[in-house]
Design brief:
It is built from 15 helices and no strands. The protein is mostly helical. The chain has a single domain, classed as Growth Hormone, Chain: A (Up-down Bundle). Helix 4 (72-90) packs antiparallel against helix 5 (96-124), helix 5 (96-124) runs antiparallel to helix 6 and helix 9 runs antiparallel to helix 13 (313-324).
Length: 395
């Protein structure tokens, strides 16, 4: 593949992930408005996260083998169409059932787009996938900064934040012709006569499940914390929702900076070193966060540290998975990212009910618990990470 084609693919993928960051991070600050429009409690509307990640789980289980066989085009096109319809409809929904149905549809598209884009970039930039995936996911973080800030400004000027996701839905639709120009890139699995045995080998390897459970904890706590930050700050520090939404943008800002820094560090440090540094920083930030409930400045500092440390975790895990299972990377990434989506489906919902029934402090200790679990899983798997990224398996 020519350098021009590679750059074009990277630009299109980054544009899609920019839109993805906007819509993902905007949902949290929009929950009070969605709940009011549907006439349900805020905790009940937290089921939006469950619907999105249920859809994402379903498509990520299906899309990996499709990607291995047919390349990126059918996966990305189907995903973009579903997100466009799902998000566009949310802006006009006035019942809980319709909101959850459209969130499910958007989640189906989200899963296809996340998996398809990550695999496409990992394959095109195979020799520097940690850096390339961190750069790609930097644009997700950039969108995540824009999303809550845009909701805050929209609330201030128009008394509603829903136009943000409507405009974002249109942006997804605009990217479709650009995706059609990318040449199909079926993987080695399309030529592999023993695809069935390779599938069985991937599914039987403990390493892929360790990576999957790391993704389960990480995606769940990233989505839960990112989604509930504005509500948490509003309830503990007494700030308005508009200002609390800006605090949420600050979290995503440091998250994005973390990914940009690690796109550079990925050329210099091993995946083990990057994960170790990031998890240590996230755990430190989580402890400070837990001990500073109600204190505005320490809470914000802790959130910024967590955000910076979170940035590189997911793209690095995906890069490790793609490198270790090159011949069937779609299947392996499907397992890992699907478990991540299950975490994103369950943990934010649980955090919403914890905040409502046990108080905001329960949210902070949940952060410490899940970051600690990721660290334990990393310590268990780091020797396998070292071995399989130095000498990739042929599974």
């Amino acid at each position: 593949m020519s350098q021009t084609d590679s750059k074009y693919i990277l630009i299109v993928a980054c544009a899609i992930f920019l839109c993805l960051g906007i819509s993902t991070a905007a949902i949290g600050p929009l929950l009070p408005e969605l709940a009011a429009n549907a006439g349900v409690s805020l905790a009940a509307m937290g089921a939006v996260f469950t619907a999105i990640f249920l859809g994402s789980t379903i498509t990520q289980l299906i899309a990996g083998p499709i990607y291995d066989r047919y390349g990126q085009r059918p996966v990305l096109l189907a995903g973009l169409i579903m997100i466009t319809i799902g998000l566009g409809g949310l802006a006009f929904s006035r019942s809980q059932m319709l909101v959850l149905s459209l969130a499910l549809l958007a989640g189906l598209g989200l899963g296809a787009v996340v998996l398809g884009n990550n695999l496409m970039i990992a394959r095109v930039f195979a020799e520097r996938s940690v850096s390339a995936l961190n750069l790609l996911n930097f644009f997700f973080g950039l969108g995540a900064i824009i999303g809550p800030a845009a909701v805050g400004f929209s609330l201030s000027f128009f008394n509603t934040g829903l136009p943000v996701i409507g405009i974002d839905a249109l942006a997804y639709f605009i990217t479709i012709p650009f995706v059609l120009r990318i040449k199909p890139m079926p993987s080695e699995a399309a030529k592999n006569t023993s695809a069935g045995s390779s599938f069985n080998l991937v599914m039987r390897m403990p390493f892929v499940w360790l990576l999957g459970f790391m993704a389960f904890c990480y995606v769940g706590i990233e989505t839960g914390l990112g989604g509930w930050i504005s509500t948490y700050i509003n309830q503990t520090a007494g700030l308005t929702l508009e200002i609390s939404a800006l605090v949420s943008s600050g979290f995503w800002l440091t998250f994005t900076i973390g990914r940009l820094v690690n796109a550079w560090l990925g050329m210099r440090l091993s995946p083990n070193q990057i994960l170790g540094i990031c998890l240590g920083g996230a755990l430190s930030g989580g402890v400070i966060f837990s001990l500073s409930t109600g204190l505005y400045i320490p809470s914000v500092v802790a959130l910024l540290l967590i955000g910076f440390s979170f940035g590189a975790i997911y793209p690095t895990v995906i890069a490790i998975t793609s490198t270790a299972f090159q011949a069937n990377s779609g299947m392996a990434v499907s397992v890992v990212s699907s478990l991540g989506s299950v975490g994103g489906m369950l943990i934010p919902l649980a955090m919403g009910y914890m905040i409502e029934s046990q108080g905001p402090v329960s949210c902070t200790w949940a952060t410490v618990l899940f970051v600690g679990l990721i660290l334990i899983l990393f310590l268990i798997s780091r020797s396998s990470i070292r071995k399989m990224t130095q000498a990739p398996a042929g599974a």
